[in-house]
Amino acid sequence: MGNKGKSGCGCLLLILVVSMVLVGALMHPFTLKLIAKQMRHEDKIVSADIIFVPRFVEDKNGELYTDAFREYWAGNGKLIFVEEDKIFGVSIESLITKLATTKGIKENVVKVVDTEGEGIARLNKINERFQAMGYKKVIVLVPEYASKRFHLLYDGLQGDGKTLYMIKPVAVTYFKKDKWWKDSTSRLAMFKEIYERGAYYWFTFTDKEKKK
């Protein structure tokens, strides 16, 4: 009995040591930097019909929209579509249009796409809108840390071959990719992204199970 007790304690001690090593490895700066790199995806960008900017509430300085203006001036898109939202009760369309005019872009260049739903359901509806408008190539601007998820999302839509979505990751100043775990805003953005990635995988898994 005594030997069994010692053996049991030894196993518990081994599990504890292994767990501590794993936690230490996961919390190491090298591993945390690697996690941020794994969230990034970039497609080759070619001239497209439109540039699309999904709404990220964390982008308080409008860096995604500013990058969309650069893509427009580079000749990579004929129109800029933004996802609808309300900021202090004002449509984001009017705010982005005003910002665009300060950059020398005409008012009719900025358009808004508004639809109901969340997650993949909302994405499907936006895709249907773009296809109904006849757009074949779309550049999608998202923060670097969200680019891999959007690649997975849009890659799942391209089976019909009707619309090509090109993901362009944008470096945003509010996300500190090399030290994201030390900054509260960056940490929150990363945790939110990990949750969204998990939700995507769960939806994909359950959807496949339903189709069996």
Walk me through what this model shows.
The protein is of the alpha/beta class and 212 residues long. The chain has a domain at 41-174: HUPs (Rossmann fold, 3-Layer(aba) Sandwich), CATH 3.40.50. The chain is built from 7 helices and 7 strands. A 5-stranded parallel β-sheet has the order 5-2-1-6-7, with helices on both faces. A two-stranded antiparallel ribbon has the order 3-4. Strand 1 (50-53), helix 3 (63-73) and strand 2 (79-83) form a beta-alpha-beta unit. The radius of gyration is 22 Å and the shape is globular. 25% of the residues are buried.
For the structure shown, list the relevant keywords.
alpha/beta; single chain; two-stranded antiparallel sheet; 5-stranded parallel sheet; 212 residues; globular; Rossmann fold
